[in-house]
Amino acid sequence: MSQIIPTVTSGIAGPLGVLHLPRLWQKASLDAAGKLHADYPAAGAGFDQMTLDALGINREAFLDYIKANKPTYTQCEQWILDQSGGSLDAGKIDAHNAAVVGYNHDDATRGGILAAVGIADNGAILDAVNLNNLEDWQDFHAAEIV
Questions:
Q1: Which stretches in the chain have pLDDT values below 70?
Q2: Which of 54, 60, 95, 146 has the least C-beta neighbours within 10 A?
Q3: Helix (H, G, I), strand (E, B), or coil: what is residue 4?
Q4: Measuring CA to CA, which residue among 36, 38, 60 is closest to residue 49?
């Protein structure tokens, strides 16, 4: 069975305006179908947990919902709204989005990613969203899918 490397960026939001949520949904959905690449967690400790915390959603409840229902993205967003009583705390979402955009990897992680993709570490790319994108795209290409 094919193992899929997720390429939806953490820097994108769906209609609810929550950065990283589309990527989390994709990873959890791929995992529920047994198709998520082994190097990627369905819901890890970084941006995944930050997103769930900002939404007030329990990790296991989220993963169980995805596995049992295999929702579309918009159905997933509706489930999140239902869990929160019909609305989200705009301040929490704004703070979450700022934390995602503002997060930088440590020097060693940044250097390793940039070396793997063949870009000099000259300080031009610091943010984790773009570094993670580069790593995902490199991994996708290395998997000989293309």
A1: 1, 144-146
A2: 146
A3: strand
A4: 60
Place of tokens 């007030």: 56
Greatest CA separation for the chain: 48
Q: How many CA atoms lie within 13 A of 44 on its CB side?
A: 10
d(CA 109, CA 115): 10
pLDDT digits (tens, 9 = 90+) for 101-140: 999 999 999 999 999 999 999 999 999 999 999 999 999 9
Contact between 49 and 42 (Cβ < 8 Å): no
Q: Which of 77, 70, 80, 69 is nearest to 30 (CA)?
A: 70
